[in-house]
Design a protein that fits this description.
Distance between the termini: 32 Å
Number of strands: 2
Bound molecules: zinc ion
Structural class: mainly alpha
Mean pLDDT: 94
Helix content: 40-55%
Radius of gyration: 16 Å
Strand order of the largest sheet: 1-2
Strand content: 5-15%
Order of helices and strands: HHHEHEHHHHH
Low-confidence stretches: none
Shape: globular
Number of helices: 9
């Protein structure tokens, strides 16, 4: 785990939000269940995993980002296992955030299946992918109160407390 950048925390800081003190525990618990990037074909185990992750560290990605959860008033989703998936650095940006850490991919799990086994070059050149990037959620500070309320209601139903 050399020199990884905490993109989620960096974006959250722009919104005056911080990670929960319980985050490192939630992250560890998630990695114990899902150690490898779900979008990578290679799923190393044991020592091979240790070596692979030394050179290509994995991130625990929030499907609905920390800053979005905070801004819409559902900070509990930061620690909700249902909101977490493991991605390598490249897949984190390309599939988890559709190319912009200020945005996110609400259907990342579908896109992991849609693009499984494709190289990053192929994904980035895909016409569907270009459309998904076009349609990715706008930066949260541009949302109307109604848009935030709609997402909050949807997520409360999807991830009941
Ligand atoms: Zn990956």
């Amino acid at each position: 785990v050399l020199f990884t950048k905490d993109h989620g925390a960096a974006v959250a800081a722009l919104h005056g939000l911080k990670r929960s003190p319980d985050w490192s525990r939630a992250k560890k618990a998630h990695l114990a269940k899902q150690a490898n990037c779900i979008a990578c074909v290679a799923q190393p185990k044991g020592l091979a995993r240790v070596v692979t992750h030394l050179f290509r560290p994995v991130d625990v990605h929030h499907i609905i980002p920390l800053h979005v959860c905070g801004v819409i008033g559902l900070p509990r989703l930061e620690l909700d296992a249902r909101n977490l998936v493991t991605l390598c650095g490249a897949h984190h940006l390309v599939l988890g955030h559709l190319g912009d850490y200020a945005s996110y991919n609400p259907v990342v799990k579908f896109h992991v299946i849609r693009f499984f086994g494709k190289t990053l070059d192929v994904v980035l050149a895909d016409v569907d992918y270009a459309r998904f990037v076009q349609e990715r959620p706008r930066e949260i500070s541009l949302w109307t109160p109604d848009e935030k309320a709609v997402l909050r209601a949807k997520l409360e139903e999807k991830f009941p407390a």
